[in-house]
Design brief:
heterodimer; A: alpha/beta; Rossmann fold; Alpha-Beta Plaits; 2 domains; 6-stranded mixed β-sheet; 4-stranded antiparallel β-sheet; B: mainly alpha; 0% strand
Chain lengths: 325, 280
């Protein structure tokens, strides 16, 4: 395995003008400009090996997209260094650009009024693919993403999901070694999200490409990313396996019970999350799990008992709302 | 790099870049065909403008006893009809477009492509011109019937017209692309654009052939780029210039093309850096 991305204390701050509301404030700001510095990313360091799939997690404005933009060469950092495939990304060397791709969920690079296939052809010449390479990759992507009948349609006639599939295909025709995917599933329905996820997974396995992905949807990250990076207020909170994140931040376990008789008051065992008929869900502190489970089995007639971590969304939510533990 | 440096690698790079043009032209032609109707409406303005000036100057010439500044009404007709064609083939809209591109972050994708965005702009411009010739050519025929132009075309003038036109196109394109980059530095480029278009209007030969302008204005126009993208090719075609004037004109065209290309390649990286500092 070789390191393809190496980031050292990468930072990005913006200077933004501060101006109050109203005419008076705007006249004042003509003479005396007030600004403040917003630190979008603060000294993030990490390295990524070839073939890894890394998920960036964080609430809106955490700095995930800013980080991805710096790594793809769209933003110039204000501090620190980054090396991607041996290049300094923001110099945007053509040899670097030919090996990466950036997909931004809500922006499109396909040409609006003409058939999809013509936008693909444009990428063929931009990335200098031979006709054989192009044909081969196009066939592959058409098959994997089921694009067949979309190719001849103008982009404006596609649904959001169809368009996103075509965006992804356009972004991969040149077989990039690194994929930066910024919210690739934003706005898509559940089945389309799943399709795209499966595709990214297959693509990674097939080509060994490295994938850096940001997403609001935990399902994306859970399904795709063995490694997660949690960013909050521009700082790196966690970098490691998803399971370790859960272990580290989850202070509770969830018990799901199937009882023989219903209507039992269960609050003496822990916090009751839900209780419907004979089925109940409890939340108990992690360290008490064994003891509570034993008591339940002793005192109640249990048909089925299942101990699990709380849904990952909840854990992440807790992490962000209480900040770094 | 836009300024050619003659190393083997640079030549190869240029050849490979040129290979993108057939596809760019084909694709932009498709886009432009989608907008042929709205484009045609847009053309009405470009057709009306020279007609207005032609009418005014013909009236002046008649009232002055048949000619003014060496132009008879029939020669004015030839001048403005040729100008209509030349102006159609050399005009650009990049200055309007840049502001929009910067504002809405359309440059993000352009920056991440391993090819300079100017090439696609050139292709888009050329294909638009080709499509809209379908409006311009019939308009020229109608104007010919209405204004009885007098063309004294000789083969040499026509042969010289082609390089003058091609360089005029390149000159205007590069020059306006250079100015358009101002959009990276200020969000209020409309003021810059407006001043540019006023000066361009006067000094390019659109209001009047520059020989009719006050001598100091005509002298200034002789050095500035505007005339060499409009009035100059027209006067070359109509055989109104001496061999010396034609050669000097080609020289000045080349100088301005080189200057604009150099400025673009120097400023482009800086403006891209400015853009990437702000983000989108």
């Amino acid at each position: 395995m070789s390191t393809v991305i190496e980031i050292d204390r990468l930072s990005k701050s913006y200077v933004v003008p501060v101006r109050g509301a109203g005419v008076r404030a705007s006249i004042v700001s003509l003479v005396k400009r007030k600004t403040r510095t917003v630190e979008a990313v603060k000294e993030i360091s990490l390295s990524v090996e070839a073939g890894e799939v890394v998920g960036f997690l964080g609430p809106n404005g955490a700095g995930k997209t800013t980080t991805l933009k710096m790594l793809s060469g769209l933003l110039h950092p204000t501090g620190g260094t980054a090396s991607v495939l041996g290049f300094e990304p923001w110099k945007r060397n053509n040899d670097f650009l030919r090996q990466i791709t950036l997909v931004m969920g809500q922006r499109n690079q396909l040409i609006w009024d003409i058939p999809v296939i013509d936008s693909f052809d444009r990428n063929r010449v931009i990335y200098r693919l031979t006709r054989e390479e192009y044909r081969e990759r196009l066939d592959e992507l058409v098959e994997l993403l089921e694009l067949g009948e979309l190719l001849s349609k103008p982009v404006r006639n596609l649904s959001l999901g169809e368009r996103m599939k075509c965006e992804v295909a356009a972004a991969l025709l040149h077989h990039p070694r690194i994929l930066f995917l910024d919210e690739p599933t934003l706005g898509l329905d559940v089945s389309m999200q799943r399709r795209l996820r499966t595709f990214v997974e297959q693509y990674n396995k097939r080509t060994g490409a490295t994938v850096l992905l940001t997403s609001h949807y935990m399902a994306d990250v859970e399904a795709l990313c063995p490694r997660v990076v949690v960013i909050h207020h521009g700082e790196l909170l966690f970098d490691g396996k998803l399971a370790d994140l859960v272990r580290k931040f989850s202070a509770q376990k969830t018990l799901v019970l199937e009882l023989e008789e219903s209507q039992e008051d269960l609050s003496r065992f822990g916090q009751v999350v839900s209780q419907e008929g004979s089925r109940a869900t409890l939340r108990v502190p992690k360290q008490d799990t064994a003891e509570v489970t034993a008591r339940i089995l002793r005192e109640l007639k249990v048909q089925d008992l299942n101990v699990a971590d709380p849904p990952i969304d909840e854990i992440i939510d807790q992490v962000f709302s209480r900040g770094m533990a | 790099m836009l300024v050619p440096t003659f190393t083997w690698g640079a030549v190869m790079h240029w050849l490979r870049t040129l290979q993108a043009y057939p596809a760019f032209l084909r694709i932009s032609l498709l886009s432009n065909l989608q907008y042929r109707a709205s484009g045609a409406i847009w053309m009405i303005g470009s057709i009306l403008e020279p007609v207005v000036y032609l009418t005014v100057w013909s009236t002046v010439a008649r009232s002055q006893g048949g000619s003014v500044g060496g132009y008879t009404p029939e020669e004015f007709a030839a001048y403005y009809m040729t100008l209509l064609l030349v102006n159609h083939l050399t005009f650009t809209w990049v200055m309007h477009e840049f502001q929009y591109r910067v504002q809405y972050g359309h440059f993000s994708f352009a920056l991440l492509r391993p090819i300079h965005p100017i090439h696609e702009d050139i292709a888009l411009n050329l294909s638009f011109k080709a499509v809209q010739l379908a409006v311009i050519l019939p308009a020229l025929i109608l104007l010919g019937l209405a204004f009885h132009p007098r063309f004294d075309l000789d083969p040499l003038s026509v042969a010289l017209f082609l390089p003058a036109l091609a360089m005029g196109f390149l000159l205007r394109f590069l020059f306006e692309w250079t100015l358009a980059m101002a959009a990276f530095w200020t969000t209020r480029v409309t003021a810059i654009n407006q001043s540019y278009f006023s000066v361009q209007m006067l000094l390019s030969g659109r209001v009047a052939p520059i020989s009719l302008l006050p001598s100091w204005v005509a002298a200034a126009a002789g050095f500035l780029p505007f005339y060499y993208a409009s009035g100059f090719p027209v006067e070359v075609a109509l055989g109104r210039l001496s061999t010396d004037q034609v050669l000097r004109g080609f020289g000045i065209q080349l100088v301005w093309i080189t200057v604009a290309a150099a400025v673009i390649s120097l400023v482009w990286r800086r403006s891209a850096r400015k853009f990437t500092a702000v983000g989108s």
